[in-house]
Amino acid sequence: MIVAISISPTGGDETGGVSDSVARAVKVIRDSGLPCETNAMFTNIEGEWDEIMAVVKQAVDVVAETSPRVGLVLKADIRPGFTGQLAAKVDRVEAVLTDEG
């Protein structure tokens, strides 16, 4: 499965930024060893249900250490039997775009 998550504290720095908290959450995810990628809005994680959810909980917990309230947005693509889809899904779309070009 692939899960896209966004974790954010309720408050930010003096400019409203949340980069420090987000970076701590992303570090937990990267340190998990699961395939992942981070973009401007989400971090995508690929793996099995239980291992991903354990990492999501750890990432939320690390943000909760410095914020009394944490927001979590989670979207999942559950497709048993498929791996390597972080890149493969994008490659399929790019192939269609190349064929249309």
TrEMBL record:
InterPro entries for this protein: MTH1187/YkoF-like, Thiamine_BP, UPF0045_domain
Highest taxon listed in the record's lineage: Bacteria
Gene3D superfamilies named in the record: 3.30.70.930
Boundaries of every Thiamine-binding protein domain copy: 3-94
Family: Belongs to the UPF0045 family.
Protein name: MTH1187 family thiamine-binding protein
Organism: Ornithinimicrobium cryptoxanthini
